């Protein structure tokens, strides 16, 4: 079993962290897909450079061994090689920088109008989510707290320190605006599958826009040291179809408006 | 300026919105409930019309309606098969079995129960930091109210925007500050 784990053949939910994970989690948004593609593109150049540098290093050590060749050639100048080793390393970062900036700005940019705004408010040590698009007054109509389920209360199949009692339900294939802020200390709202990591700063509203492409449950954790229970402040996003989202939200709205 | 443009041409999110919109966006299930109330009566009345020659007295009609109710539970799965899109909740909620009704339900299902709409992207605030976006929308609403009078319909969209963007805690605080006359913004 351990060998299997070493070979990364374990069956684990792809949208949560797994033991001994080296790669990224499966992409759920175009943003995460872009990040992974960029990573792979850069790794191509990275490995080329690594091989080249290692070759030079080993070759130098081999040929200029102190016993075999105690007196090296006394070359101090080589115009050609100096030009080459200046120009090539300056071109390579360009190949890395261009797609990197393209991705960075496309992530930052909000191209289309979002259909839903969800407010994720960090607290010590839980998160409050507000769905206020359907409000008709200043009274909050759909707000809930999301606590991590303690280890003793876990049911079979639930991930330790990842599962929460109230998940954030979002519609899939819809442009979402998530407003991230905090009520006390800095937190961070991070869901690796959706390629999102946004600091929650008190007094400031940070916006991230995502569009989850497939239905599923996505796990994330607080990514900014926020106090004692930092490790117990997880995030679970549940992407459902638009229709299910509509019925879910209206079902939750009715009892609350009934109380009010 | 950006707003003027957005009012003329439908924004992308509006274009992608599913076609049939409910009038009351807050609680979408109200029409459904209304239907539930109506449908059994219509079904029964139709059945009544069929059974009328046989059933003479009122009590017998009551019995037949009970029988009809039993029949309806039997025929229900067939109706479910016919309507592909009808969700389980909908079929459970409505006990009626008329084919026409199930068609109507399909139409009701296609329409979103709640309107997926929120504050649009504002070109004044293109960055990640949306703090001023929320604040500006809040001020815009209250200036609109001050200019057009309380409850002016053209101000509603600003109310919707700031409610979507601002945390409710902030709104509460600002409302208090406005009442006390200590609100820091230009109202």
Automatic annotation (TrEMBL), chain A:
<dbReference type="GO" id="GO:1902494">
    <property type="term" value="C:catalytic complex"/>
</dbReference>
<dbReference type="InterPro" id="IPR011759">
    <property type="entry name" value="Cyt_c_oxidase_su2_TM_dom"/>
</dbReference>
<dbReference type="InterPro" id="IPR045187">
    <property type="entry name" value="CcO_II"/>
</dbReference>
<dbReference type="GO" id="GO:0005743">
    <property type="term" value="C:mitochondrial inner membrane"/>
</dbReference>
<keyword id="KW-0732">Signal</keyword>
<keyword id="KW-0186">Copper</keyword>
<protein>
    <recommendedName>
        <fullName>Cytochrome c oxidase subunit 2</fullName>
    </recommendedName>
</protein>
<dbReference type="GO" id="GO:0009060">
    <property type="term" value="P:aerobic respiration"/>
</dbReference>
<dbReference type="InterPro" id="IPR002429">
    <property type="entry name" value="CcO_II-like_C"/>
</dbReference>
<keyword id="KW-0813">Transport</keyword>
<keyword id="KW-0249">Electron transport</keyword>
<keyword id="KW-1278">Translocase</keyword>
<dbReference type="GO" id="GO:0004129">
    <property type="term" value="F:cytochrome-c oxidase activity"/>
</dbReference>
<dbReference type="GO" id="GO:0016491">
    <property type="term" value="F:oxidoreductase activity"/>
</dbReference>
<dbReference type="GO" id="GO:1902495">
    <property type="term" value="C:transmembrane transporter complex"/>
</dbReference>
<dbReference type="InterPro" id="IPR034210">
    <property type="entry name" value="CcO_II_C"/>
</dbReference>
<comment type="similarity">
    <text>Belongs to the cytochrome c oxidase subunit 2 family.</text>
</comment>
<feature type="transmembrane region" description="Helical">
    <location>
        <begin position="83"/>
        <end position="105"/>
    </location>
</feature>
<keyword id="KW-0999">Mitochondrion inner membrane</keyword>
<keyword id="KW-0479">Metal-binding</keyword>
<dbReference type="GO" id="GO:0005507">
    <property type="term" value="F:copper ion binding"/>
</dbReference>
<feature type="signal peptide">
    <location>
        <begin position="1"/>
        <end position="16"/>
    </location>
</feature>
TrEMBL record, chain B:
<dbReference type="InterPro" id="IPR036549">
    <property type="entry name" value="CX6/COA6-like_sf"/>
</dbReference>
<feature type="compositionally biased region" description="Basic and acidic residues">
    <location>
        <begin position="32"/>
        <end position="63"/>
    </location>
</feature>
<dbReference type="GO" id="GO:1902600">
    <property type="term" value="P:proton transmembrane transport"/>
</dbReference>
<dbReference type="GO" id="GO:0005739">
    <property type="term" value="C:mitochondrion"/>
</dbReference>
<dbReference type="InterPro" id="IPR003213">
    <property type="entry name" value="Cyt_c_oxidase_su6B"/>
</dbReference>
<feature type="region of interest" description="Disordered">
    <location>
        <begin position="1"/>
        <end position="120"/>
    </location>
</feature>
<keyword id="KW-1015">Disulfide bond</keyword>
<dbReference type="GO" id="GO:0045277">
    <property type="term" value="C:respiratory chain complex IV"/>
</dbReference>
<keyword id="KW-0496">Mitochondrion</keyword>
<protein>
    <submittedName>
        <fullName>Uncharacterized protein</fullName>
    </submittedName>
</protein>
<dbReference type="Pfam" id="PF02297">
    <property type="entry name" value="COX6B"/>
</dbReference>
<feature type="compositionally biased region" description="Polar residues">
    <location>
        <begin position="1"/>
        <end position="14"/>
    </location>
</feature>
<dbReference type="InterPro" id="IPR048280">
    <property type="entry name" value="COX6B-like"/>
</dbReference>
<feature type="compositionally biased region" description="Low complexity">
    <location>
        <begin position="84"/>
        <end position="98"/>
    </location>
</feature>
């Amino acid at each position: 079993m351990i060998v299997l784990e070493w070979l990364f053949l374990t069956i684990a939910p792809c949208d949560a962290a797994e033991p001994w994970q080296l790669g990224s989690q499966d992409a759920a948004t175009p943003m995460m897909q872009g990040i992974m593609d960029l990573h792979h593109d850069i790794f191509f150049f990275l490995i080329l450079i690594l091989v080249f540098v290692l070759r030079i290093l080993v070759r130098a050590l081999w040929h200029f061994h102190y016993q075999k060749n105690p007196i090296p050639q006394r070359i101090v100048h080589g115009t050609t090689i100096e030009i080459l080793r200046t120009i090539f390393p300056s071109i390579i970062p360009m190949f890395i920088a261009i797609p990197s900036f393209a991705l960075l700005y496309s992530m930052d940019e909000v191209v289309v109008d979002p259909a839903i705004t969800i407010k994720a408010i960090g607290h010590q040590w839980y998160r409050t989510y507000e769905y206020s698009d359907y409000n008709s007054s200043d009274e909050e109509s759909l707000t809930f707290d999301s606590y991590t389920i303690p280890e003793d209360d876990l049911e079979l199949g639930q991930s330790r320190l990842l599962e929460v009692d109230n998940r954030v339900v979002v519609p899939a294939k819809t442009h979402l605006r998530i407003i991230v802020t905090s009520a006390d200390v800095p937190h961070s709202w991070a869901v690796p599958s959706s390629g999102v990591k946004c600091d929650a700063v008190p007094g400031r509203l940070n916006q991230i826009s995502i569009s989850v492409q497939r239905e599923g449950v996505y796990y994330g954790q607080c990514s900014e040291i926020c106090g004692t229970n930092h490790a117990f402040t997880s995030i679970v996003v549940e992407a459902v179809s638009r229709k299910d989202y509509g019925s879910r939200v209206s079902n939750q709205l009715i009892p609350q408006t009934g109380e009010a | 300026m950006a707003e003027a443009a957005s009012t003329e041409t439908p924004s992308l999110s509006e274009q992608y919105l599913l076609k049939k919109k409910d009038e009351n966006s807050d609680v979408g299930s109200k029409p459904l409930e209304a239907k539930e109330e109506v449908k059994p009566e219509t079904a029964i009345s139709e059945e009544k019309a069929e059974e009328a020659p046989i059933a003479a007295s009122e009590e017998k009609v009551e019995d037949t309606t009970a029988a009809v109710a039993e029949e309806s539970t039997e025929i229900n799965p067939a109706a479910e098969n016919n309507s592909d899109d009808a969700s389980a909740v909908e079929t459970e909620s409505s006990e009626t079995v008329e084919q026409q009704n199930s068609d109507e339900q399909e139409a009701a299902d296609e329409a979103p129960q709640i309107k997926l709409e929120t504050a649009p992207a504002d070109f004044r605030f293109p960055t990640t930091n949306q703090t001023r976006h929320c604040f500006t929308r809040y001020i815009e609403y209250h200036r609109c109210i001050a200019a057009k009078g309380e409850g002016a319909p053209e101000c509603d969209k600003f109310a919707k925007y700031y409610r979507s963007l601002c945390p409710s805690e902030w709104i509460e605080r600002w409302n208090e500050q406005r009442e006390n006359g200590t609100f820091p913004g230009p109202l």
